[in-house]
UniProtKB/TrEMBL annotation:
Residue intervals of the AB hydrolase-1 domain: 5-67
Gene (name only): Abhd12_2
Cellular component, GO annotation: endoplasmic reticulum membrane
Organism: Crotophaga sulcirostris (Groove-billed ani)
Name this polypeptide is given: ABD12 lipase
PANTHER family: ALPHA/BETA HYDROLASE DOMAIN-CONTAINING PROTEIN, PROTEIN ABHD12B
GO molecular-function terms, A-Z: monoacylglycerol lipase activity; phosphatidylcholine lysophospholipase activity
Alphabetical list of SUPFAM superfamilies matching this protein: alpha/beta-Hydrolases
InterPro entries associated with the record: AB_hydrolase_1, AB_hydrolase_fold
Domain of life assignment: Eukaryota
Length: 173
């Protein structure tokens, strides 16, 4: 069964492997959706446990924490008002120790941070991404290290297709 600590262990092992082979190249953590919590968890652990700062973090379709993401998800909203929503949907996440606290991780990080969100994201609405940006921007001492880029609805990138945008490599650089 996947666990939050297991994801952290895997990402840090991958980081070690890449770092050993990358020479002086930069290494960034890039998380999409659920992966945004994983990426910030790993960046925070690397910083706190090893005193090493990752070269950057990119968050695509970010959320604050898994509980809030579940309550903002349009699919979950169908069931939100039914009795037992918290017990059947949210409580199992707590019991499994799945929190993915992007919001808390950002308060402890200081590496360059880029947040990407499509205005037509139907899974995690853009206002959730803006909230992530506001949390990071208020927590970072160096505000210039935090960037938020939205992609207009007319591009049709939704939740899963930001990587198809031909301008993305230039934006990341």
């Amino acid at each position: 069964h996947p666990t939050e600590s297991g994801f952290n262990t895997d990402v840090l092992a991958l980081y070690d492997w890449a770092k050993a082979r990358s020479g002086n190249s930069s290494i960034i953590f890039w998380g999409h959706s659920l992966g945004t919590g994983i990426a910030t968890n790993a960046a925070r652990k690397l910083q706190e446990e090893r005193g090493v700062q990752v070269d950057g973090v990119v968050l695509e379709s970010a959320y604050t924490n898994i509980i809030e993401a579940a309550t903002h998800n349009p699919f979950a909203k169908l069931y939100y008002y039914f009795p037992g929503f918290e017990y059947f949907i949210l409580e199992p996440l707590n019991l499994a120790n799945l929190f993915f606290r992007t919001d808390e991780n950002l308060k402890m990080m200081s590496c360059p941070l880029l947040i990407l969100h499509a205005e037509d994201d139907g899974v995690l609405p853009v206002y959730v991404g803006r909230k992530v940006f506001e949390i990071a921007h208020s927590a970072y001492k160096d505000k210039t290290k935090v960037k938020f880029i939205t992609f207009p609805e007319k591009l049709g990138l939704g939740h899963d297709y930001m990587s198809f945008n031909p301008e993305l490599p230039a934006l990341v650089k």
